[in-house]
Amino acid sequence: MNFVEELRWRGMLHDIMPDTEDYLLKNKTKGYIGFDPTADSLHIGSLVPIIILMHFQKAGHYPIALVGGATGMVGDPSGKSDERNLLDEATLNKNVAGVKGQLARFLDFESTVENKAELVNNYDWMKEISLIDFVRDVGKHITVNYMMAKDSVKKRLDSDAKTGMSFTEFTYQLFQGYDFYHLYKEKDCMLQMGGSDQWGNITTGTELIRRKAQGKAYAITCKLITKADGTKFGKTAGGNVWLDANRTSPYKYYQYWLNSSDEDAESYIKIFTFLDKETIEALIAEHKQAPHLRILQKKIGEEVTIMTHGKEAYENAIKASNILFGKSTASDLKSLDEQTFLDVFDGVPQAEINRSVIENGLDIIAAFAENGFLKSNGEVRRALKENSISVNKEKVTEDFVITPADLIADKFVLLQRGKKSYFLLKVI
Length: 428
Prior knowledge:
The protein is of the alpha/beta class and 428 residues long.
């Protein structure tokens, strides 16, 4: 498999150093991508470099995932208009452990195959280097003129920039360059990859290898994902979309992909899945025949949710989606964990009710009229006669009484009038 061509037809290739494609076709090569632990979870923007490493491994090469325990202490200025907040060591260690665990879900670090993935932490080699050694052995090989020519530096030193750049962030490219040099010397790593905003940092590494080791190394960057409407990829009204199920539930994760525009879905299906070209072209053609069926979005959601969270989580996300938009039962509702249930009914009006009221039995008219859902007992009775009242998605009659057996996640009761009007009772 031609790794570079795979990235090219999928629309993922941005920059490539001369001779890189030819070198990769002729040699089984070690290549790495760095992940800075700015949080204890990666978000979906990190999926692109992860998937690139997965393609790299599928092509027979040797992927290395680098977790930046050292560079995370410095902060990458690339694409940033302000200085990052520096993390304390305890937070950084927690973040490193979280990122390592997530990478292991996507890359196989344990198998017996010859080209299994390798995980490294740059803190392991940077912690032993003194400042004097670093400026003597690394700094002398890269001129300030060279460093200031990088876009990540120029933008922060521009007269229009709101803030300048600290010496801490200015040195970041030397740190990253040294990572590449170290992996080149110690692990025969010939290639660094990353997002297009990393080109300056990556080429500092290839330059350091050329000047300090008289060697030749290679570089590839991928396009940064943008959305057709101009909004930021991986962001919702609620913030980042994370790979950690505790931060972004599989239901919300699936919904993010499901809500992609048709234009975005045509690029996402190539970037975020491993479906072959023929299958993707057939799906795009089928989607264009009936866009309202959202064939592309559903397929992307399926592939990426299973890849990130597993098949069971995907099936639960589908079940949760059907609760609002399809037929479902009380047992479907009760199978949801609390977070997914709250995600599904995010924004639905609710009222709190004492547990003792439920334990004593809450009659259906009081449940609807006394908590602010419907205006009066009479309105509830009329709705009951119209057979439009449901508790936990199941139709009920006037003699129905809500008991603890009806609680979802031992905490909620879902009231409903008609098809689309919902109300939550939260037991306290």
